[in-house]
Structures are given as structure tokens and as C-alpha cells.
């Protein structure tokens, strides 16, 4: 039996009287425009993770990895935090490092948005670029190389392999969704990168009700434009990822994901990035499939991963570029 935990970020003495205490407990809102052609009982809800202090869902995992590192004695005052990131985890680690006065070095793909890089640097992190052609895998390999060259210098959270990543969602995201839906959630949909969000949240929700369906939103192609997400077949698979715990996957094309991110802003008043558009695309596909099967009632919850202010330079908000939704 899985119990509902007290928010671990509120509980920790490390976060006392800091912005870190406000990680988690994000709002859950119904997406009414996205579902306007559906029966009222076919609902899609989005969790507004862009309202975390660092602006994304990654604040949760980053904080848990740091808390566990301090608790275990692996992260000591003389060490530097080192990890690979496509942006949001790096921003979260940099923010946490600035509060706790711990230096941070981040390996980032050269094609990460300039806004993300600037925000990491604003928090005081040192950014090390890997080849843009290798995407997040190149950043992973670069971080491994630096760590192996000087292991005594670094604390490496390793978000792709650290069990504290999914644990953050077992202890916070999952319980929040369960409570916010009055225990009525039927489907949980999340875009996958490190996979920590879907693994941890899915485990908690399945522990409360094994009939809840856990669905991954995955880019449909190796050369996709959904920054931060992984096409698993062509990528280094995270050690924390256990596909057998999923009930299904939805392949998400890049262009409709961009179009839906814009729709969230224009019609729902939610300013979110393209990974949120991908998650909403997958959630809508789940709803459409249920309707095709004659089922008219569901409570589908998805994660709106971050805010949209990191993507100005990526063309997401350049409305001279038309992105089309295929539905």
C-alpha cells in the first residue's frame, strides 16, 4: 500500500525560509478549450509545473536528488554539482545551487535554447556545451567524461540513473494529483525525457488504483524538434526507465505539439513550452481513442512541463511560422 506523503520539500530544514520551500503543490486545471467537442464527462486536466520556482517540473527531481545527496554524505560543501541537461534540470540545479551556495557545472547540448542557457548562467552556473548533433546523449557522455577525470571534485546527481528522480514524483506529484482529482484520475499522461516524472507518478497512482492507465508521450522520430524529450529507440535509454510499467505510448509529431502549445496560450491562457504541447497531444489522443471505443467518461491528467518563456528563440512564438495541428 502506498501512503500519501507530506510534501518533502516543505518538510526539509534545508529549504526553510527559501524559495525552495515552494517547489511542488502546483495547480491542476481543466483544459476546456482542448476538449470543447468532447462530452463534458471526458475531461483532460493539466498540472501547471511552470509555476515552480525554477519554472518547470524538473525542480522536483533536482531538489530531491540534492536532498538525498546531502543526506547520504555524497554532497559535501567542498564539491561541485555536475550533471547533463537539455535545460530545465540544469536551471533547477543552478537555482538550488545559488540558494545553498554550492557551485554548479552543467553539460548542455549546443542547440539548447539561448533563454535556458542565460537562465542557468543567471543563477551562477558554469555551462559546458556538447555537440548539438548528439543532442542530450552528447551532454550525458560529456558529463560522464568530466566526472571520470575528477571524481573527487564533483557530486553528479545523474538524473537519468538516480532513483531520487522518480522518488520525487512518488512523494509529491503523484499524491498531489490523487488529492486534486478527488481520487478520480483514470489516466496519467506524461512526455518522456529522463522518464522520472512518468515512472514516479505512475508508481504512486498505480499503488492507489491499479486500473489507472499510465501513458507516455514520445517523439515520433529520432530527429524531432521537441527539446528535452527522448525518442527511446534512437537514444541512450535512462537507467530509471522501466517500460513494462507503462500501459501504452503515444507517438507525437513535432508540428502538432508546437500548434497545441500555441493553442494552450491562445485559448486556455496557459503559457507553456512545446513539451507541454506534446503531452496535451497525447492526452487528447487517449481521449479520442476512448470515445472511438464508446467510452464517454474519463479523468485524464497530464503534466504541463514548463513555462513558454524559454522558447522565444526557437520559433515557438513566431506566428509568421505556421504550425498545423493534424486533428
Task: Report low-confidence residues grouped into runs of 5 or more.
Answer: none
CATH T-level topology of the largest domain: Rossmann fold
Strand order of the largest sheet: 1-2-10-7-8-9
- Specify the number of helices: 9
Q: Any idea what the CATH architecture of the largest domain is?
A: 3-Layer(aba) Sandwich
Rg computed from alpha carbons, rounded to a whole number of angstroms: 19 Å
Helix content: 25-40%
CATH class of the largest domain: Alpha Beta
Structural domain count? 2
Structural class: alpha/beta
Order of helices and strands: HEEHEHEHEHEHEHEEHHE
Mean pLDDT: 93
Total beta strand runs: 10
The profile of the biggest β sheet is:
6 strands, mixed
N- and C-termini, Cα separation: 40 Å
Strand content: 15-25%
Given the C-alpha coordinates, what overall shape results?
globular
Structural summary, described in words:
By secondary structure, the protein is of the alpha/beta class. It folds into 2 domains: 8-56 and 163-314, Rossmann fold (3-Layer(aba) Sandwich); 58-155, Rossmann fold, CATH 3.40.50.1100. The protein has 9 helices and 10 strands. Strands 1-2-10-7-8-9 form a 6-stranded mixed beta sheet. A 4-stranded parallel beta sheet has the order 5-4-3-6. It is globular. It starts with 7 loop residues before the first helix and ends in a 23-residue tail after the last strand. The mean pLDDT is 93.
Amino acid at each position: 500500500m502506498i501512503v500519501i506523503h507530506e510534501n518533502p520539500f516543505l518538510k526539509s530544514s534545508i529549504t526553510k525560509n527559501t524559495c525552495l520551500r515552494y517547489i511542488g503543490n502546483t495547480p491542476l486545471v481543466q483544459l476546456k478549450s482542448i476538449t470543447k467537442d468532447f462530452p463534458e464527462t471526458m475531461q483532460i486536466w493539466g498540472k501547471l509545473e511552470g509555476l515552480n520556482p525554477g519554472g518547470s517540473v524538473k525542480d522536483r527531481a533536482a531538489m530531491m536528488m540534492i536532498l538525498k545527496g546531502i543526506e547520504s554524505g555524497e554532497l559535501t560543501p567542498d564539491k561541485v554539482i555536475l550533471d547533463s541537461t537539455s535545460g530545465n534540470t540544469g536551471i533547477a540545479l543552478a537555482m538550488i545551487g545559488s540558494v545553498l551556495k554550492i557551485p554548479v557545472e552543467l553539460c548542455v547540448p549546443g542547440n539548447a535554447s539561448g533563454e535556458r542557457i542565460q537562465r542557468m548562467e543567471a543563477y551562477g552556473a558554469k555551462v559546458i556545451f556538447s555537440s548539438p548533433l548528439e543532442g542530450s546523449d552528447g551532454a550525458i557522455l560529456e558529463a560522464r567524461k568530466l566526472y571520470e577525470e575528477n571524481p573527487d571534485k564533483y557530486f553528479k546527481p545523474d538524473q537519468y540513473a538516480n532513483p531520487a528522480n522518480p522518488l520525487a514524483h512518488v512523494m509529491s506529484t503523484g499524491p498531489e494529483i490523487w488529492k486534486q482529482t478527488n481520487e478520480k484520475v483514470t489516466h496519467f499522461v506524461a512526455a518522456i525525457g529522463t522518464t522520472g516524472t512518468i515512472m514516479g507518478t505512475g508508481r504512486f497512482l498505480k499503488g492507489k488504483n491499479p486500473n489507472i492507465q499510465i501513458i507516455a508521450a514520445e517523439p515520433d522520430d529520432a530527429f524531432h524538434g521537441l527539446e528535452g524529450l527522448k525518442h527511446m529507440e534512437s537514444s541512450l535509454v535512462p537507467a530509471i526507465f522501466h517500460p513494462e510499467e507503462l500501459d501504452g505510448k503515444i507517438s507525437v509529431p513535432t508540428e502538432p505539439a508546437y500548434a497545441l502549445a500555441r493553442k494552450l496560450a491562445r485559448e486556455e491562457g496557459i503559457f507553456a513550452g512545446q513539451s507541454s504541447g506534446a503531452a496535451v497531444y497525447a492526452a487528447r489522443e487517449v481521449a479520442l481513442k476512448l470515445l472511438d471505443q464508446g467510452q464517454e467518461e474519463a479523468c485524464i491528467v497530464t503534466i504541463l512541463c514548463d513555462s513558454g518563456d524559454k522558447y522565444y528563440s526557437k520559433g515557438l512564438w513566431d506566428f509568421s511560422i505556421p504550425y498545423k495541428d493534424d486533428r
